[in-house]
Amino acid sequence: MPITLRKFVSAAGKLGSSLETLLLVLILSSMILLACAQIVLRNVADIGLPWSDELLRMLVLWIALAGAVSASRADKHISIAVLDPFLPALLKKLVRLLIHIFTAVICAIVAWFSLQFVLTSKEYGDLLLGNVPAWCLQAALPLGFALIAWRYLIFFLTDLIALFAADSTAADSLGKEPEL
Amino acid sequence: MSLVLLVSGLLILLALLGAPLFTIIAASALWGFYQEGIDFQALAIEFYGIAEMPILLAIPLFTFAGYLLSESQAPQRLVRLSQALLGWMPAGLAVVSLAVCALFTAFTGASGVTIIALGALLLPALQQAGYPEKFSLGLVTSAGSLGLLFAPSLPLILYGVIAEISVDSLFRAGILPGILMLVALSGYSVWTNRAVRVPLGDFSWAEVRAAVRAAAWEIPLPLVVLGGIYSGYFAISEAAAVTAMYVLIVDMLVLREVKWRKLPDIMRESMMLVGGILIILGMSLASTNYMIDAGVPQKLLALVSQFVSSEFSFLVLLLLFLLVLGAILDIFSAIVLVVPLILPVAMQFGVDPIHLGIVFLATMQLGYLTPPVGLNLFISSYRFERGIVEVYLSTLPFFIILLLSVIIIAFWPWLSLVLL
Predict the structure, then answer these.
(1) DSSP state of A1
(2) Is residue B19 within 8 angstroms of chain A, CB to CB?
(3) pLDDT of residue A179
(4) Which terminus of chain B has a smaller tally of CB atoms within 10 A, N or C?
(5) Closest Cα partner for A20 from A164, A129, A147?
(6) What integer pLDDT is reported at residue A177 of this predicted model?
(7) For residues A63 and B275, what is the distance between their CA atoms, to the nearest angstrom?
């Protein structure tokens, strides 16, 4: 890979990672603030915020997906991997390829059908939080799964290139953590 | 039929090879929907159920508060305070370690943070005090999951969500069984170290006062949270919100022990765990509903009825099953995947759902210490740079004590149910 392209890829990776962190910080902070505001208002001023419970539940869905996307970048999803330690090195690489493409395909399928679900919801004109179209809030589903699928596709392609790279220097430079 | 076997076999193989568990659950749900001719949109609709469970709010908030606490100096102050209060008794430091770890685990959600935050503090202290190397390592490793049955631990909340029973009553039910484990391990520590001449610490009011003053900001936290929850003043998610806000204010503004630029990383780290748990929960909502529609619990009941006929024999079978399960699956996945299937079966045999929850979690706690997956073994081996076999052997006596406690908890339902 030419130097400039590699720089671009690494810069894009840093940007993506920072955006994810920013999103997580924003969602989590609003959850803490909103949940506390709710308690204070109810106990001190006896005011209930009619939409706050619903919004908090939506934020849980969002943080679940945003957290799962972040976990994907670090390849830190909960897994069993009992057999992994017993595999010889080459087989281990092939197994990783298989698992990464499997994860990418499953998440792509889930993303596609989540999109259908969101489109159906848009068609029916469901509303949440009073007058916000439900599909805006539900869009986190297809988006989250598409990002996870994308991440594992990148893992797969990087592994593949590393596996087939003719000389070891190329494999070294590409075998590192992909950052996109 | 053979196709079904082939697909299940392939999925199990992929899982054992290390595919993310949520993809395996998603794939099996999709396969089920395909068999029944159900639109795949159903998966998204079921996953969306995450946004329809208000109690789930407690999970990210408690997890974040726990991660932030473990980054501050709170663990050190907690150890100092307990040492001042309990250090005078025989094997005092060992008992202190157990108590502190239990409290800390309850607050940090049993995710292995305890060993990282407290182990590095306690292991050298134990060795310095003259406890045998093997004992100290085993104690720190096994104590890392000890507070699992105390409020507000994540597995208890998750079990309540899945079994659709009140989390408050689970919090109450866990108290005595949790204390039993704590007392059993403390008793073992005192007995096994009776020949070791560990100098007894002095009890001094001055040190107690100083330790209390140092921990003045942390002491109200368990009182407010546990008091609020057990008295019914706070809902669980409200207690979680208060905890997160309180820890945030104390650590960032009052004591300023955590740097502001570290905060985003702490948030990110903690939410990666939350995302990892909730994505499995979301997928299993779909696969569970499919399995219940397909009558899997009934088939399971029919199968189990061939072998057992009483509550007693059912519990024996359950314990054996959970011991194996705990060695393969982590506690969170086990709850969302297995509880919906065994709960109806257990109720047929007269097991109370709350008692089942306590038995389930207590047995899965042993899973933290059993190879090949045992999370605590790996964290400990990594953190203290010891071989995994050495860590495993050192935890063995503690494992046996905990196993005996689990058997008592399982066959003495009174312990779980008396405080309801």
Answers:
(1) -
(2) yes
(3) 45
(4) N
(5) A147
(6) 47
(7) 7
State mean pLDDT over B272-301: 88
Query: Would you say B365 and B402 are in contact if contact means Cβ atoms under 8 Å apart?
Result: yes
Residue A88 neighbours by CB distance under 10 Å:
7
A129 at interface of B, judged by CB pairs closer than 8 A: no
Whether residue B292 is predicted with pLDDT greater than 50 in this model: the reply is yes
**CA-based nearest residue in chain B for residue A148:** B23
- DSSP H/E element including A132: strand A132-133
Q: Using CB atoms, which residue from B48, B52, B241 is nearest to A32? A: B241
pLDDT given at position A167: 47
Q: Which has the closest alpha carbon to B56: B280, B245, B231?
A: B280
Spatial CA neighbour of B355 closest among B265, B403, B417: B417
pLDDT at residue A175, rounded to an integer: 46
Is A25 at the interface with chain B, CB within 8 A? yes
Strongest mean pLDDT among B91-95, B123-127, B196-200, B357-361? B357-361
3-state secondary structure of A128: strand
How much is the pLDDT for B111? Answer: 60
Looking at residue A173, what is its pLDDT? 47
The 3-class secondary structure across chain B, one letter per residue, is CHHHHHHHHHHHHHHHHCCCHHHHHHHHHHHHHHHHCCCCHHHHHHHHHHHHCHHHHHHHHHHHHHHHHHHCCHHHHHHHHHHHHHCCCCCHHHHHHHHHHHHHHHHHCCCCHHHHHHHHHHHHHHHHCCCCHHHHHHHHHHHCCHHHHCCCCHHHHHHHHHHCCCHHHHHHHCHHHHHHHHHHHHHHHHHHCCCCCCCCCCCCHHHHHHHHHHCCCCCHHHHHHHHHHHHCCCCHHHHHHHHHHHHHHHHHHHCCCCCHHHHHHHHHHHHHHHHHHHHHHHHHHHHHHHHHHCCHHHHHHHHHHHHCCCHHHHHHHHHHHHHHHHHHCCHHHHHHHHHHHHHHHHHHCCCCHHHHHHHHHHHHHHHCCCCCCCHHHHHHHHHHCCCHHHHHHHHHHHHHHHHHHHHHHHHCCHHHHCCC
Residue A178: pLDDT above 60? no
pLDDT tens-place string over residues B74-83: 888 888 888 8
CA distance B305 to B371: 30
Q: What pLDDT is attached to residue B346?
A: 92
| ipTM surpassing 0.85 | yes
Interface of B with A in 27-56 (CB under 8 A): 27, 30, 39-41, 43-45, 47-48, 50-54, 56
Give the pLDDT score at B22: 94
Find out whether B294 and B28 touch, Cβ atoms under 8 Å. Answer: no
Cβ-proximal residues to B96 (8 Å cutoff; 6+ apart), any chain: B79, B82, B83, B86, B87
Residues B163-167 have a mean pLDDT of: 91
Look over chain B and give the mean of its residue pLDDT values, rounded to a whole number: 88
